[in-house]
Structure formats: C-alpha cells, structure tokens
Amino acid sequence: MSAEAPARQRTMRRLEPAAIAGVMSREVANFRTYWRGTTFSSVLEPLVYLLAFGLGLSATLVDEVEGIPYIQFVGTGMVATAVIFSSALPSMFGTFVKHRFQNTYEAILAAPVDVEELVSAEMLWIAGRSAVYGCVPLIVTFFWGLDPAWGMLLVPIFAFVTALGFAGFGVAMAATVAKIDQFNYVTALFVTPLFLVAGTFFPINGLPEGVQVIAQANPLHQLVELVRGGAFGYEWVDLARFAFLLAFAIVTWRVAVARMKRRLID
Amino acid sequence: MAAIELSGVVKRFGAITAVDGLDLDVPEGICLGLLGPNGAGKSTTMRLLTGQAIADAGELRVLGYELPGQSKPARAEMGVVPQLDNLDVDVTVEDNLAVYARLYRVKDVGAAVDRCLDLARLRDRRRDAVDKLSGGMRRRLLLARGLVHEPRLVLLDEPTVGLDPQIRTELWTLIGDLKARGATILMSTHYIEEAERLADEVAVMHQGKIISRGRPADLIAEHAGRQTAEVYAPPQRLSELRTSAEAAGLRVRPAGPAIAIVGSERAADGGIPEDAVVRAATLEDVFVLLTGEEAE
Predict the structure, then answer these.
(1) CB 3.0 to 4.6 Å from B167: which of A207, A216, B163, B229, for a disulfide?
(2) Cα separation of B70 and B23, whole Å?
(3) Minimal Cα–Cα distance from A20 to chain B, Å?
(4) pTM of the model
C-alpha cells in the first residue's frame, strides 16, 4: 500500500507566526465579550491592596521605607501583585476550562497548529494583557506623589516578561492537576507565598536569612526591584534581575509545552 | 491516490488496545462510513488521523503526508468536524468562522466566512453570539467551520450523535451537498441509517479493526441475503424459534423484543412462522450479525 506524494507538498515550520496569531485572534474574539469583568477585577484588586496597605499603614504605622514614602513603596511593588494575579490565575483556570470543559484545544489542534504554538500563543496573550494591567498601580501611585521617570518606560517590558513566566507556570499547572479544585493547593503553596514574600509590602532584608535567600529566587521579588529601579534609579544588578526573569519565562515555557503535550496528545 | 492509507496501525491505552492492526484505504472522492459500536476504536482512529494520538505501531499516510511527522501540513488540507460542540459560545458566528479561517491560513478570511455563512444558512445570524443559536444552527456552523479552508479531505466524527431527527436530517442534507462537490469524506458513526444514506462504502469496525467493508448493498447481499423475518412473540416461543432456525442453518439475531431471522428467503417451506414480518435485509442486520451489538 503506497501513495504518491501530492504534487504540491506543503512544508510547515515550528512556531509559525500565522499559527500563533490565529490562536491569539481567538483569544481576542473571546476577550471582547468579557473584558469589562476581567479588567475590573484585575485593576481593582491591586488598587484595594494599594489603598488598604499603602494608605492605611502610612497613615498609622509607617512613614517611609528605605527613604521612600510608604504609599509609593507599596504602589511600585503592587505592579508585581497585579502581574501575578492577571497571569498565573487566568492561565491556570483558562487553560483547564478550555481543555477539559470546552474542548477548545481539540478543535485548534485539528488545524495546522501544534502544541508548542498553542502554548506560546496562550502565554503571549496573557502576558500582553498582564503587562497592561500591571502598569495600573504605578499610574495610580502618581496621584500620591510618585514622580514619573524615564526608567518607568521599561516597566511594561518587565511586567510582560514576568507575566510570560507566570503564564507558563499556570499552563503547566493546568496540564498537571486532575481536577479544578486542586488549584487551591497551587494557590496556597505557590501563588500566595510568592505574592507575600516579594518585597511589595515590606523589604525582604528584614526577613530571616534563609527566607531572604528563598525570596531572591522569587520572580515577583525581582520584578518589584526592577520596578523600583525604574521609579527611583536602576543599578547594575538590575541586569541580572532581568536575565533571571527571562530565564524564568523560558523555563516555564518549555515545561508548559512539555506538560501540555503529555496532556493533549495520546 | 488514496486520501487515507493506514497499514497495521495499533494504538494502546495501557492494557486496552483501542486500535488493533487497522488496515484502511480511503480513495479520493468517496464517502467512507466507519461504522461500529461505541468503543470500536472509531474516535481513536480519528484522533490518529489528526495527530492528536500517536500510533504505537503501523504506518499512516494522509493526502500523501506521513503521520505523525508530517501531521501539520496534512491537517492544513483536511477539515475536521468533531463529535462534541466546541464552538466559542460567547463569540459571534462570523468571528467563530474567522478565527478558524486564520488558523487554516486562509488568505481571504472575509470571503471564506461569507461562503461558510451561506453553506450553514446563517448569513442573517452572522453577528449573533453562538449561544443564541438553536441546536441545529450550531451543528451547521460546526460543519461549516470544518470546511472554512475548502479541505480536500473531511473527517466527520459522529456528526449527528445526540441530535434530534429533524436536525439530523438537516445535517445529512449538508453532508450530501459536500459529497456532491466531490470531497473525500471519512465519517465515523454508529447510526446505521446515517451510514446507509451517506456512505458510498461502509467499513464495519469492531474491537479496533475492520471486520468487513464494501458498498452497503454488497455487504447486505454478502452477509444478510435478501430478506429478514422478524418474529414478535413471548420469550419462550422466541427461544424455540431461534433454536429451530439455527438448526436449519439460518442466522438469527436479537431485535429488541423480537428475533430477526436473517436470510429468511433460504428457509425451507414452513421454516418461517406465518406471523413473521418479512422485510428486505438491511445494513442493521449485517452490523448486528458482525459485531454482536444492538444497532442504533
């Protein structure tokens, strides 16, 4: 049993921009139907933290931290909170729902799209969205005396790269858990500790030494430091911080692709 | 050239062998019905053809492309209509089509969307969200979405499963139109009537392999003869009739509350009870005889 090859055999490469754009166009079409709710929660949650901690504590307990007015210290740190909330959580739940309940990926993978392109598109879309949401706390903090600085123009890039990493983390988790309620473990074990030990609300150098070392491996902490660098002046070490975030994004991307291949291809 | 060529394909899930040495050729331009009971391996075969399952053994070639290595260009030239409705329900009809036109790298997305809207007879609903459509409209849209790039080969995976008779008839009309345009179709189904009406050839699949294949009329002639006699009676009498018919060399199958004596034209005088309902043999008779499963 053999067949001649078709006269005009197509060749298709890995990571084709057209495939990635196609998957992202599906996300855009869906986002147009729910952007109000998502934007409302993604903007409001960090603002509530900012106002509660920033205004609440600065009015009662803390004037300044490391020479920075406390509301500005928290406001710059809240960029990281906005990024993790708008990347890790939507990627976990969104990926799981699309795979398990909506059978969306089965339809997409029947088209000339492979798992690597699918995962890359999902991560890029979430990271792009998250980079926008992540800038909101910074902009709001302008109203509490934070002076605009040229260095802040890099914040969307830092937020994008960090969100890319957390989107990959979320996709990998979605491809690992068996039931949606197992995300409670992921949130309790990873998301909440990373959020709390990022240096958003207090400097990590006040923590026990062992925790400080762990906090250095927290991508959110590196993002917080980069945002504060953008607002108050960069240091050379910030290059290393950015390299760390890039590495985090690349590692979670590859893990997410591998996990999703196992989940989607029998 | 055959559009699909499978040779010795095996797919296992742990201890379960879903596809067991499957050999299948689908020539270009025909509609082949893959008929089998639930669990026969039809859906796994479809997943193998779309690269969403990787065979443990055997060779797969689709439209001249070797699978799984060249699955991606093969998928670019085939359309898939899934068993489950996986439309984006909050998105408009036209956006659902446009997204898949982009995924299939269609150059003129607008023209492709218009063509599919006409095909699905949904032009006046193009700006409605999918969740505002009736069940029949959604299935028509799902079918049109699989054809958005005018594929050379169409895989229909249980296209009318779970649908009411009216919607099923609508879908059959659309699939009939598709056949008339010369598309190659592989359609998995466990509905006998669907296979009989739409398929040029039927391959009966059971326990992961093809156990018989041919034109419906040829399969009926080969396995079931010309006539079938159905007898409705109390269980005790059915049991006696079954025993005597089998003793006379006839094949008997269960038919709900009755028994069906297949090939009843070959019975000796008096071999078929007078109260039997004699009818032409059908593909259902063939299916039940070959698979031992009740037909739907």
Answers:
(1) B163
(2) 20
(3) 8
(4) 0.88
B196 in a structural domain: no
Q: Decide if A262 touches B, using CB distance below 8 A.
A: no
Which of B9, B44, B62, B86 to mutate: most A Cβ within 10 Å?
Answer: B86
**Three-state SS for A254?**
helix
- What residues of B are in contact with residue A266 (Cβ under 8 Å)? 11, 13, 44, 47, 52-54
Nearest CB to A33: which of B54, B90, B100?
Answer: B90
Residues in Cβ contact with B114 at an 8 Å cutoff, skipping those fewer than 6 apart? B123
B102/A21 Cβ within 8 A: yes
Cα-only R_g, chain A? 20
Chain A residues within an 8 Å CB radius of B25: 1
Nearest CB among B50, B64, B90 relative to A5 is that of B64
3-state percent helix, strand, coil for chain B, nearest multiple of 5: 35, 30, 35
Among partner residues B52, B59, B100, which is closest to A266 by beta-carbon distance?
A: B52
**H helix runs in chain B, sequence order:** 42-49, 71-76, 93-103, 109-119, 135-146, 165-180, 192-198, 216-223, 235-247, 283-291
Residues in contact with B25: Cβ distance below 8 Å, sequence separation at least 6, in sequence order = A1, B2, B4, B5, B6
Strand pairing report for B201-206 and B258-262: unpaired
| Helical ranges in A114-154 per DSSP H | 115-141
Q: Could B99 and A25 be called an inter-chain contact, meaning their C-beta atoms sit closer than 8 Å?
A: yes
| B141 belongs to a structural domain | no
Can you give the CATH number for the domain in which B233 is found?
3.30.70
- Residue B268 resides in a domain: yes
**pLDDT tens per residue, chain B (296 residues)?**
799 999 999 999 999 999 999 999 999 989 999 988 888 899 899 999 999 999 999 999 999 999 999 999 999 999 999 988 899 999 999 999 999 999 999 999 999 999 999 988 899 999 999 999 988 889 889 989 999 998 999 999 988 877 788 888 888 888 888 888 888 999 998 888 888 888 999 999 998 999 989 998 898 888 888 888 888 888 888 888 888 888 878 888 887 788 888 888 877 777 787 888 888 888 888 888 888 766 55
Pairing of strands B201-206, B184-189: unpaired
Optimal mutation site among A4, A109, A117, A260, interface B, most CBs of chain B within 10 A: A109
Residue A264, min C-alpha distance to chain B (Å): 7
Q: Considering the domain boundaries, does residue B212 fall inside one?
A: no
> Which residue in B has a C-alpha nearest to residue A25's C-alpha?
B99
Distance CA B292, CA B55 (A): 27
State the count of interchain CB pairs (< 8 A) between A and B: 112
Query: Domain map of chain A by residue range?
Result: 17-264
Query: In whole angstroms, what is the distance from residue A113 CA to residue B52 CA?
Result: 11
The range of the structural domain enclosing residue B244 comes to: 225-280
Report which DSSP code applies to B16: E
